[in-house]
Amino acid sequence: MSEKIDKKGLKKFGLTSLAVDNATSIFILTFMVILFGVSSYINIPKEAYPEVNFPQIFVNTVYFGNSAEDIESLITRPIEKELAGVAEIKKVTSSSSQDYSLIVAEFNSDVEFDAAVRKMKDAVDKAKPELPTDLDRDPEVIEVNMADAPIMTVNVSGDYDNEQLREYAEYLEDRFEDLKEVNKVDMKGVMEREVQIEVDLQKMQALRVSYGDIAQAIGQENMTMSGGEILSDDFRRNIRVVGQFENPAEIKDVIIKSERQRPIYLRDFATVNYGFQDQTSIARADLLPVISLDVIKKRGGNVITAATKIKEIIAEAENGGLPDDLSITLFNDLSIQTESLISNLENSIISGVILVILVLLFFLGLRNSMFVGIAIPLSMLIGFVVLQAIG
Question: Terminus of the chain with fewer CB atoms < 10 Å: N or C?
Fold first, then answer.
């Protein structure tokens, strides 16, 4: 609004005059700003790092037993050829080394990231027929997002064997994943179970059995399939043929092949053990084994709220469900850093208001300096309302 001159020759600012003439409405509006602003400040998600999608997508492919030259010709070039057809890609760089291929696709910052990821995955799928058929696993498309970083790591350690320690860790994992703020929990440091079939090579050759025969026979036996329908008493009932192994000991009774109507069982030339996969890393805390739980929150969730609920679950478990000699420690807790940032923000607001009031007190008087000082937090509260409204 422009300035106007009243009958006394004094200049008047229209917006100020409107506020003075409608003081009651202004006080009500101020109260509403404070109410909704404080509510928005409390409920708005709080982050130490913003949820930003980096404009880069990685394609990782592992192919053991091959040189860098073979990796480039067999893996990297076929995938790069398909990626060239994705219009959103700005730049493609690749690196081929022993047993490993890494391709980095860079996009412009204004490209819709989810659509770019879908097109990347479609391009990699188109390249699969040109890739070697004996890959250990398919090429992996990885997107980098700060929201996928764990907000804290919970270490579970104690003088227990792997199975018992894993049981305690899974108890906490289930409790954490029940929280609405938590997306998933990654368990690390646990030894995974596997079935090991150790064959006697001389007996296997004498019985004319190959490794392919073993794999094919076990694969055909370890499956559950539909058996169709049966009509009984005017009701149609589905039939399932359950054939999956429930006990590793059942595997040794699998018939691998039949020679002259004499069945050859797996137990005739092999032993079956239910053991653990080879360890690739070892974690210890006070010379005791450790299982780590990386907690990843949902996008848009509140870090502080999630961390508080996780700590409450740990305290409850320590007081009731878990042994006293089990050690549960927290590591890399982002809520501490977030709370520190929020505390600094609040201190800056309070100190800024006080400093402004003290400075203006000498020039404008108490009343005018109070109005100016109140305007600072009010403007920030309006900003919080707008931030929450636009998500």
Answer: C
**Strands, E assignment, 245-326:** 255-259, 262-265, 270-276, 284-285, 288-297
> Which structure tokens are listed for 12?
């008047």
Length of the chain: 391
* Integer CA distances (angstroms), 166 to 152, 185, 322, 326, in order: 19, 14, 12, 12
- Residue 107: count of CB within 10 angstroms of its CB: 21
Q: Work out the end-to-end distance of the chain between its first and last CA atoms, rounded to an integer number of angstroms.
A: 31
The helix/strand count (H/E) of the chain reads as 10, 17
φ, ψ for residue 7, nearest 5 deg: -65, -25
Distance CA 103, CA 87 (A): 17
Distance CA 91, CA 109 (A): 12
The gap from C-alpha 225 to its chain's centroid, in whole angstroms, comes to: 34
Digit-coded pLDDT (tens) for 108-165: 777 787 788 888 888 888 888 888 887 878 888 887 776 677 888 888 888 888 888 8
Longest dimension (CA), the chain: 122
Contact 209, 269 (CB under 8 A): yes
Q: 């179970």: which residue's tokens?
A: 193
What is the Cα–Cα distance from 264 to 287, expressed in whole angstroms? 48
For residue 163, give the DSSP letter.
H
Q: How many CA atoms lie within 13 A of 86 on its CB side?
A: 29
Residues with Cβ < 8 Å from 173, sequence gap 6 or more?
A: 185, 187, 293
Which residues sit opposite 285 in a β-bridge?
A: 288
Residues 6+ apart with CB under 8 A from 258: 264
13 pLDDT higher than 70: no
The more confident residue out of 66 and 226 is 66
Count the alpha carbons within 13 Å of 160 in the hemisphere toward its beta carbon.
20
| Cα–Cα distance, 368 to 372 (Å, whole number) | 6
CB–CB of 197/214 below 8 Å? yes
Buried b (16+ CB within 10 A) or exposed e, 290-316: bbbbbbbbeeebbbbbbbebbeebbee
**CA nearest 38: which of 382, 370, 389?**
382
Neighbouring C-alpha atoms within 13 Å toward the C-beta of 210: 3
